[in-house]
Write a structure and sequence with these properties.
The structure is a single chain. The chain has 414 residues and is of the alpha+beta class. The chain has two domains: 93 residues, Fumarylacetoacetase, N-terminal domain (SH3 type barrels), CATH 2.30.30.230; 289 residues, Fumarylacetoacetase-like, C-terminal domain (Fumarylacetoacetate hydrolase, domain 2, Alpha-Beta Complex). Helices cover 14% and strands 28% of the residues. Strands 6, 7, 8, 13, 14, 16, 17 and 22 form an eight-stranded mixed β-sheet that branches. The protein has a five-stranded antiparallel β-sheet with strand order 4-3-2-1-5. Strands 9-26-25-20-21 form a five-stranded mixed β-sheet, with no helix packed on it. The termini are far apart.
Length: 414
C-alpha cells in the first residue's frame, strides 16, 4: 500500500490512521446508534454519508448504515465491505472532495457514545497460547508435564456466554459464587477473592455457514470480518472449584468486554508474521500455508481509583501457537455452523517472559509474587474500584493500525 495522507488530521501516534478505518456503532448529537468509521480523533458518520448516495454504487441498502449493530453491514459480504473501505480511503485522501463540507459527515469521538459493535449470537473462547497453557499447567498440575496430552494437537476451546459480553467502558460488579478455601472441608459462598483479567484478541465472524458445512485453513479467513481487543474476565477461585469435570462456567460467564472498534482483517495485511513451529506436526486439516500470525503489540494497565496508570504486561498477538484460521477450521470441522456476529476469542495471550504474561494469575504467580503499583499498593489479583485497560496496535514502516482500548472498572459485589 502506497503512502496515504488524509485531509482529516491524524496524529502520528493515533491508532486510527488512514490505513485502519475500523467500524463501530456510535450515537451523538441526538441521533440514534449508527455505523461509523474512526479516523484520527473523528468518526465518519456512514449513515449520513449513505444518505448522500455515496455508497449506492456498491449497495442500495442505505438502511444497513442506520442499524444499531454492524451485523447487517457485515452481511453485505466482504466483496462489498472491502470495496466500501477502499472508497472511504480514496474519499478521505481527496483534498478536493465536496463531501468534506457535508454537514454531519464528521463527529468528534469525544462527543460520541460508543455501543456494542455487533450482536453476538455465539461466543467461543480458545486456549491457544502455549506459554499461558504451560504456566497454568505448572501451577496447578505437574510442572514436568504442564500441557495436557491433547494441547499440541487441537485448538482447545469452550463455548462461553454471549449475553454477558459488553462494550468497553461498562463497569461491572465483582462476581459471587462457591469457592473452596485452602484446608477447608466444604465450599463456601462468597464474592470472588481472585478476580483476574485475561488479555485476548477476538475475531468477528463475517459469513454464515450451514449445519454440516466445514471450513479449511485455506478459506477460513474469508469468514473472518475483523478483530477487536477482548478481556475475558475470570474469577479464579470460583473457576478452580467448579471446572472439574466440565470446564468453565460461573467463573467465566459473569462478564467479558470488547473494544468498540472492529478492525477489518485486511487492515493487517502488512503486519503478517510466521507463527511458531508446531511440534509434533498437526493433522492435515489443521496444516496451513503462508504467514497467519499478526504482529500486534498489546499492553495491560491497572489504574487504582484516583491513581495513576500502571502497565503490568506488554505482550503481542504474534505469540499465539494456534492461529485464527486453525481455530475457525477446527470449530467447524464437525459440522458446527457459524453465524455473522459470532465472536471467537483467542484465549489468554502470554509471551515467554514475565513482562509479557497476559493474566494476574501468571504475573503474580498464583499470589506468590505481588505486583507493586506506583502508589505503593500491591496486587495479586484485581481489587474493587480498579480499572483494567487493554490497548493494542500494529506498527510498521510508518503505518499504524490500532484498536483504541477496552477498559472496565470493577465495582464491589452486590
Amino acid at each position: 500500500m502506497s503512502n496515504l495522507t488524509s485531509w482529516v488530521p491524524v496524529a502520528s501516534d493515533s491508532d486510527f490512521s488512514i490505513y485502519n478505518l475500523p467500524y463501530g456503532i456510535f450515537s451523538a448529537h441526538g441521533n440514534g446508534p449508527r455505523v461509523g468509521v474512526a479516523i484520527g480523533d473523528q468518526i465518519v458518520d456512514l449513515a449520513a454519508l449513505a444518505d448522500t448516495g455515496f455508497f449506492d454504487l456498491w449497495t442500495t441498502q442505505r438502511d444497513v448504515f442506520h442499524q444499531s449493530t454492524l451485523n447487517a453491514f457485515i452481511g453485505l459480504g466482504k466483496a462489498i465491505t472491502s470495496a466500501i473501505r477502499l472508497a472511504l480511503q480514496e474519499m478521505l485522501c481527496d483534498a478536493d472532495t465536496t463531501l468534506k463540507d457535508h454537514a454531519g459527515l464528521l463527529v468528534a469521538q469525544a462527543d460520541a457514545n460508543m455501543h456494542m459493535p455487533v450482536s453476538v449470537g455465539d461466543y467461543t473462547d480458545f486456549y491457544s497460547s502455549i506459554e499461558h497453557a504451560t504456566n497454568v499447567g505448572m501451577m496447578f498440575r505437574d510442572p514436568a508435564n504442564a500441557l495436557l496430552p491433547n494441547w499440541r494437537h487441537i485448538p482447545v476451546g469452550y463455548h462461553g456466554r454471549a449475553s454477558s459480553i459488553a462494550v468497553s467502558g461498562t463497569p461491572f460488579h465483582r462476581p459471587k459464587g462457591q469457592v473452596m478455601p485452602k484446608d477447608a472441608t466444604a465450599p463456601v459462598f462468597q464474592p470472588s477473592g481472585r478476580l483476574d483479567f485475561e488479555l485476548e484478541m477476538a475475531f468477528v465472524v463475517g459469513k454464515d455457514t450451514q449445519i454440516g458445512d466445514t471450513l479449511t485453513t485455506a478459506n477460513a479467513e474469508d469468514y473472518i470480518f475483523g478483530l477487536a481487543l477482548f478481556n475475558d474476565w475470570s474469577a479464579r477461585d470460583i473457576q478452580k472449584w467448579e471446572y472439574v469435570p466440565l470446564g468453565p462456567f460461573l467463573g467465566k460467564n459473569f462478564f467479558s468486554s470488547v473494544s468498540p472498534w472492529i478492525v477489518p482483517l485486511e487492515a493487517f495485511d502488512d503486519f503478517r508474521v510466521p507463527g511458531p513451529a508446531q511440534e509434533p506436526a498437526v493433522l492435515p486439516y489443521l496444516q496451513y500455508e503462508g504467514d497467519r500470525n499478526i504482529d500486534i503489540k498489546l499492553d495491560v494497565i491497572i489504574t487504582p481509583e484516583g491513581g495513576e496508570e500502571n502497565v503490568v504486561s506488554r505482550s503481542n498477538f504474534q505469540y499465539m501457537y494456534w492461529n485464527m484460521a486453525q481455530q475457525l477450521t477446527h470449530h467447524t470441522i464437525n459440522g458446527c455452523n457459524i453465524q455473522i456476529g459470532d465472536m471467537m476469542a483467542s484465549g489468554t495471550i502470554s509471551g515467554k517472559d514475565e513482562s509479557s504474561y497476559g493474566s494476574m494469575l501468571e504475573i503474580a504467580w498464583a499470589g506468590s509474587k505481588p505486583v507493586t503499583l506506583s502508589d505503593g499498593s500491591t496486587r495479586v489479583f484485581i481489587k474493587d474500584h480498579d480499572t483494567v485497560t487493554m490497548r493494542g496496535y500494529a506498527e510498521k514502516d510508518g503505518k499504524r493500525v490500532g484498536f483504541g482500548e477496552v477498559s472496565n472498572k470493577v465495582l464491589p459485589a452486590r
